[in-house]
Specification:
The protein is an all-alpha fold. It has five helices and no strands. The protein has helices at 2-12, 24-43, 47-73, 77-101, 104-129. Helix 2 (24-43) runs antiparallel to helix 3 (47-73) and helix 3 runs antiparallel to helix 4 (77-101).
Length: 131
């Protein structure tokens, strides 16, 4: 259960910690915008690419958020396995969409950036758990 939650969190590529002054969803949206801007600058995306990239990440975020809600209510092993398969499908499809928006060099650089984001998330999760 913990592993699936960690995987879902990592898939967002968004560090969704909620602040006291903003609702979690709004904080996540701000973080998404910051991540898009970071990727845009690092890999040299055009404005058009950045807009499409952000749209894909927003769609992915919403789909994974809905999936996480269903995950909380899942009780059986088969149901949880089915949700993991849906998670993989969502992330795989969004990665394919991103690959269509970026050229090969940009996509490879994005995957490096994404790996860094995932490491930040893992480190943040470990820190919150006290590991």
């Amino acid at each position: 259960m913990k592993n699936t939650l960690i995987v879902l969190l990592l898939s967002f590529t968004i560090y969704g910690a909620s602040g006291a002054e903003k609702p979690a969803a709004e904080t996540s949206r701000d973080e998404l915008s910051a991540r898009v801007q970071e990727a845009k600058e690092k890999i040299g995306m055009s404005e058009e690419q950045a807009a499409k990239f952000k749209e894909i990440l927003e769609k992915r975020f919403e789909a994974l958020k809905a999936l996480a809600g269903r995950r909380e209510r899942a009780s059986g092993f088969r149901e949880k396995r089915k949700l993991r398969a849906e998670y993989r499908s969502i992330t795989k499809n969004s990665d394919k969409e991103i690959a269509k928006v970026l050229d090969d060099k940009q996509y490879k650089e994005f995957k490096k950036i994404q790996t860094g984001w995932q490491k930040e998330m893992r480190d943040g999760i470990k820190g919150r758990r006290g590991n």
